[in-house]
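Journal club prep, shared notes

We agreed each person brings one worked example of a sequence with its structure written out as tokens. Mine is ImpA family type VI secretion-associated protein. I'm keeping it raw so we can talk through how to read the token line rather than staring at a rendered picture. Sequence first:
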Amino acid sequence: MTGPAGEEIFCDEHGRVRVKFNWDRYNPSNQESSCWIRVAQAWQATGFGNLAIPRVGQEVIVDFLNGDPDQPIIMGRTYHQENRTPAACRGRRRR
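Then the structure, token by token:
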């Protein structure tokens, strides 16, 4: 997730966000890094629902509707080296 320096949340009036794709190695990581991308939500309908906007710096999982690179959509988020899982989850094993 990208955005202006110092911002925790960066989205437009529709809840869309911008990302820095791993293959884009030359352009800066900022609020102009990509087109606006919709974020899939667990529960939504007209006028009500759940809205969880990814934070700047989070790693997101992007899919493309019908495989079309002009229709990206964020399907979820994942932990990574700098954004680690909560301490309570680390080191636990299945029982």
